[in-house]
Specification:
With 300 residues, the chain is α/β, with parallel strands linked by helices. It is built from ten helices and 14 strands. β5 and β6 form a beta hairpin.
Length: 300
């Protein structure tokens, strides 16, 4: 247990996602009370902030500080959406300032993947490391880095956008045969959304069905599933070579599958040993962002 987990009195956390918002009280790294509500549509800044305040207000009187995890580029407590279709109008929104003022608490905000990385490092799969990476493979691909025991935060909010690094592209929506040498973001090739698109092309219902079929021995599904894992392993090896990462935790609906972790490990084994960080599953599940945001707000 690291010092980062010891918090008294409780801390309040908000996790703002495209589908739902969650609020929780967290004490000594454990969630003691939680609330949840749908994210309002359209998810403009004013409507989301009003809904978040209403959700968190019943818990705020017992908290010493507020931590917020939110999708998008987050820098200095200000948020700019990277998925503008999900969060329209979010350009340089002073999220931490507005939520903190509304609840009367000091407030810190992080990108949701970075918050999850901090939670896993402090209270989950990253404990005991100094160079750690958390990767979520779900609808998209997100990541967070702890380097030298410090959460990596860039001034422009691009702190660990693993999903946007380039890899050879096998497909694009609406394109059956790509141009030779075409590149695309890792997220377009290895996320649950990408696997879902490939699943439909092969006649499977969705990404889960494709992964299930691959793990049951279907050769076509296996080729897609293994390619996703191989591209992920390649970028993990690159990250290890650049940053000295010694452990990586996979989370998300795809990343938490035992078969996916096994395939990433198998592909990673093809790289030199020094570029092979320990690969594990994340431990905190969907609560990693809440716990990480709270611990970040309560540090020091």
């Amino acid at each position: 247990m690291t010092d980062a987990v010891i918090t008294s009195p409780p801390l309040l956390a908000l996790d703002i996602g495209g589908t739902s918002m969650r609020a929780a009280l967290i004490h000594n790294g454990q969630i003691t009370e939680r609330r949840e509500a749908p994210t309002p549509k359209p998810s403009t800044p004013d409507t989301v902030i009003a809904a978040a305040l209403a959700l968190a207000a019943p818990l705020s009187a017992r908290a010493a500080a507020l931590g917020v995890a939110c999708a998008g580029a987050v820098a200095g407590g200000r948020v700019t959406a990277t998925a503008v279709h999900t969060f329209p109008g979010w350009t340089d929104v002073a999220l931490a300032e507005r939520l903190g003022a509304g609840l009367g608490l000091p407030c810190a905000a992080l990108n949701d993947a970075r918050a999850a990385a901090w939670g896993e490092w402090a209270a989950g799969a990253g404990r005991g490391t100094q160079e750690f990476m958390f990767i979520t493979v779900s609808t998209g691909v997100g990541a967070g880095l702890v380097l030298g025991g410090r959460l990596h935060l860039a001034g422009n909010g691009l702190d660990a956008e693993l999903g946007f690094v380039s890899v050879p592209a096998a497909w694009q929506p609406g394109t059956e045969i790509p141009q030779l040498g075409q590149l695309g973001p890792l997220e377009f090739e290895s996320s649950g959304t990408a696997l879902g698109g490939q699943a439909l092309r092969l006649g499977f219902a969705d990404a889960r069905a494709l992964c299930d079929a691959a793990e049951a021995g279907n050769a076509e599904a296996e080729a897609v599933y293994s390619r996703s894992a191989a591209l992920m392993a390649w970028k993990i090896a690159d990250s290890a070579a650049l940053l000295g990462i010694t452990r990586v935790a996979l989370g998300g609906s795809v990343g938490l599958r035992p078969g996916y972790l096994a395939r990433v490990r198998a592909s990673l084994a093809l790289f030199p040993a020094r570029y092979q960080p320990e690969m594990v599953h994340a431990e905190l599940g969907a609560d990693a962002g809440l716990i990480g945001a709270a611990l970040w707000a309560g540090r020091g």
